[in-house]
């Protein structure tokens, strides 16, 4: 044999030994056909004895074989991936929910992919279509807005779970969250107990059911107690620090600051607090501030902020449990899972 032929053979052997193991390698190691390996790994019942199945699993472990998911996804028209669409991955509140959901999804044997829609309807639809093209098993929507793509998804797409915000269209898809209306009402009652009657609201976008219900609960409870909010005491904001800072200026334009302000989320409250510092208002002596969500950053950056606490870890566990039931085809999937909220009272109110 020539030196050139020997070199080619050695190179070929090295290439085969360094390549990822194939289903054929598993079949040869277990002494069965590739079809048998495929049926066993796909969980097809009554197609192999327990002894044969054990040989296959032993070969898989020894060879460190991982099935190629693309072909399996095409054959089943479903991948082992769940997509989570979040409106703002910079917000620690949303990031913490995503982390809790991811851990729960992983426990079901699925992976999770994260998409940041930035509260943009076009981005939401683009991600929905992209995830559907990847044959995801399900989609979790953390902060959905009404779009054509969402309506198509609900008509003929994979299972959907809505988190924090309810589905913006008529649908029987499950929701996991808190009673936002009740939470807003509880903040109003707290203000009234403290004697705060000239109050204001920096609420989030009304296209969000969560933001809208928080504000409505607060507004209605104040009005019922004879302390209705004046029109110039109601300001809509984006759910960001920048918007809270910028839009809060409108509360001070008539020259008299409100005694207390209910903010649609904690970042809005951060922005308002910065504005108060610049205007030399003391918190809470001059202006009381109440946030919402109990953002995980509060412990480190805003330990002064009174806020509505949302149980993030439990929220994540419930979302993953509901998705697991949907993927298993269970008939026992709750339409609404409403978790308990609490008021966390700190020095700002």
Q: Pairing-aware structural class of the strands and helices?
A: alpha/beta
Describe the global form: elongated
CATH topology name of the largest domain = Rossmann fold
**In whole angstroms, how far apart are the ends?**
89 Å
The CATH architecture term of the largest domain is 3-Layer(aba) Sandwich
Low-pLDDT runs: 12-18, 70-77
The H/E string reads: HHHHHEHEHEHEEHEHEHEHEHEHEE
Kindly report the average pLDDT value: 89
Strand arrangement, major sheet: 2-1-3-4-5-11
Count of spatially separate domains: 3
Number of strands: 12
Largest sheet: 6 strands, parallel
- CATH H-level superfamily title of the largest domain: Response regulator
Helical content band: 40-55%
Q: How much strand content do the residues show?
A: 5-15%
CATH class of the largest domain: Alpha Beta
SS field, number of helical segments: 14
The radius of gyration is: 27 Å
What features would you describe in this structure?
The protein is 47% helix and 14% strand. It is an alpha/beta fold. The protein folds into three domains: 3-67, lambda repressor-like DNA-binding domains (434 Repressor (Amino-terminal Domain)); 76-178 and 312-340, Rossmann fold; 180-309, Rossmann fold (3-Layer(aba) Sandwich), CATH 3.40.50. Strands 2-1-3-4-5-11 form a six-stranded parallel sheet, sandwiched between helices. α6 (92-107) packs across α14. Residues 12-18 and 70-77 have low confidence and may be disordered.
